[in-house]
Amino acid sequence: MTTRELHLAFNQRAMEVASHKRDKFFPQEVDAYLNKAMYRLLEKGVNRKFQDTEINLSHVTALLKKNKILEVIIPQTNDPMYEEHLDSVYTTIPPDMYWLVNGRVETINDPLNCEVAPTLASTTLQEWVAVVPFPSPNGSSPYYPSLQVTSTSAGTLYTAPSPISAGVTSTSSAYVFINDILEELYSHATVRCYWERYRDIYYKNSFIFVSYSNLGTFSITATGVTTSSAAQSATSYNKYNRALISNITSKNVALYPVKVNEANFLYSSLRENVFYNTRQREVSCDQTQDYFTFYADDSFIVTRFYFDYIRKPRTISLLLNQSCELADTIHPKIVDLAVEIMRLDTKDQAYSATVQDIELRTQ
Asked: Cβ(144)–Cβ(174) under 8 Å?
C-alpha cells in the first residue's frame, strides 16, 4: 500500500470518524498509530523467531542486515561505565539497530597453555565526533525551508526532500526533519548519526556525527535560520591489533556464540555461580542502550564481534509520502492493529468488537 492508501484504510476501519461521532484524526496522529502498530508486529515476529504463521521471515527480510562486523575496543580505565576488576571489551551499538538477532565473537586462546590467554598488542583508534544542536526555527512560517546537513570534507550529507524542502507550517513539525535526517544517514558509508545520546552521554536536542576520519565541521542550515555547526574533535581508544594475530606462535582462533545476560543476572553469571561463568564456548555479553560488552576470563581474549540484526524500519509518513517498507502482505494487519490501538487509547466502546473482528478474520 502507498502511504495515502494506509491512511484511507485506517479511516475506513475507524468508522466513527466517517460518521462524525468524533473529530477527524490529524495525519500525524494516523502516522503515529501506524508506526506503533508496525513496530509491535515486527517485534512479535522477532519474538517468535520468525516462526509465526502470520508474521514470518519474508516480512522482514529487507530489514535483516547480514554479517555486520565490529572490532571490539579495549575499555580505558577512565571510562566510567566499566569496573576495573572486570575483564571486558566493548563496542558501540549501531544507530539503526532495532533488534539483535544473533551474535558470534572471535576468540583466541593458547592450546598449549589453556589457563593463560595469548598476548596480543593493541593499537590506537581515533574516533571523530561532532555534536550539532538542531537549530532554532526562523521567525515565521514556513519553518526550516531548504534545510541541509553538510560537512566541510564530506560535502552535502542531507537535503530536505519535497514537500518539506519548502518548509513546514508548525515548529512542532521539526521532528519530521530530525527523523528524516537520521534515516537518511543510517546507511551512510562514512558517517554514523545519533540523536541526543552517544556513549552514555546525553546531548539535548542535538545530532552526534561520528566517523573514523576527520570530516571537518558539520553544519545544519536553512533559509532564515541561524546556522548550527560544530567541528569534529578526536578521542583515542585502544583496540586489539588484529593484524598481529598471525604473529602469535601458539593460538586457536575460533568463532563462538555469545550469551546475552540480563543486567540483574550479570554479576551472578560472572562471579557467583561457576556454572554460569563466561567461557570461550559461550562468552557472556551485556547489551545496554549504547554498548555491547563482552566478558572474558584469564584463558582467552575477544577480538571481534559478528552479528545480525533487524534495523529500524523506515517511518511511515504521509507528509513525506513515505510508506511502510515491510511486505505488502502485512499492511492490512498494521492497519487493523493501528485501529485497535487507537480505540484502546481513546477508550472507545467499540474496542472489544474490533478485537473480536480481527481475531475472526485471522483465524
From this structure: yes
| Together in a domain, 257 and 297 | yes
* 244: in domain: no
Asked if the structure places residue 144 within a domain, the reply is: yes
Q: Which residues pair with 309 in a beta bridge?
A: 65, 100
> β-strand 283-287 against 252-260: which pairing, if any?
parallel
Residues 111, 163: one domain?
no
CB 120 within 8 A of CB 240: yes
Number of independent structural domains in the chain? 3
Residue 188 domain-assigned (yes or no) = yes
> Would you list the DSSP string of 150-202?
EETTTEEEEEPPTTGGG-BS-GGGHHHHHHHHHHHHTT-SS-EEEEEEETTEE
Residues 191 and 233 in one domain: yes
Q: State the pTM of this model.
A: 0.84
Q: pLDDT of 126-171, one tens digit each?
A: 899 999 999 999 989 999 999 999 999 999 999 999 999 999 999 9
Same domain? 91 vs 30? no
Residue 258, sorted as left (phi over 0), alpha (psi -120 to 50) or beta, turns out to be beta
Identify whether 207 is part of a domain. yes
User: HSE (CB half, 13 Å, CA atoms) of 136?
Assistant: 2
Chain segment 26-79, per-residue pLDDT in tens: 888 899 999 999 988 887 766 655 444 444 455 555 566 656 777 776 654 433
What count of residues does the chain have? 363
What DSSP string describes 296-362?
--TTEEEEEEEEEEEEPPPPPBTTTTB---S-GGGHHHHHHHHHHHHHHHTT-TTHHHHHHHHHHHT
The alpha carbon torsion through 249, 252, 258, 262 (nearest 10 deg) reads -60
Last residue of a domain, one of 181, 204, 237: 237
Q: What's the mean pLDDT when you consider all of the chain?
A: 81
Q: In what order do the strands lie in the sheet with 233-240?
A: 64-70, 300-311, 97-109, 252-260, 283-287, 291-295, 88-92, 73-74, 233-240, 122-133, 201-211, 192-198
What whole-number distance in Å separates Cα of residue 7 and Cα of residue 27?
8
Residue 31 is part of which domain span? 3-60+326-361
- Domain boundary pick from 185, 202, 237: 237
